[in-house]
Target: VOC family protein
Amino acid sequence: MLNLSAVHHIAIICSDYEVSKRFYTEILGLSVLGEQYRAERQSYKLDLALNGHYVIELFSFPNPPKRPSRPEALGLRHLAFAVPDIDASVTHLTAHGVVTEPIRVDETTGRRFTFFADPDDLPLELYEA
Model:
């Protein structure tokens, strides 16, 4: 049996590095662990943490193809973040110009959740934990 212990990180490729860096750090509040420019790839790599845990690698590459988000496509469906107060979180996102879907209730758990998108239309979810 494979002995997986945790999800180590999620890699995201963005179209506009500075816009996405600002979104993930200033709006979502992830902290920067490290940043490097890889000249041979014309690519930035930004390591981001949530509550001190490494979670996202944000990459830039020249002219990456778009990923279809709608209609939902094969592959990663969305990335979900747990929040203690979904109303406060939606208020924060709205204040920063981020549009969220109406808050819904998970029929199985009774928990509230909503969806929104990052600057490249990657679907993101907030799930009240």
Q: What stands out?
A: The two ends are 31 Å apart (CA to CA). The first strand starts at residue 10 and ends at 14.
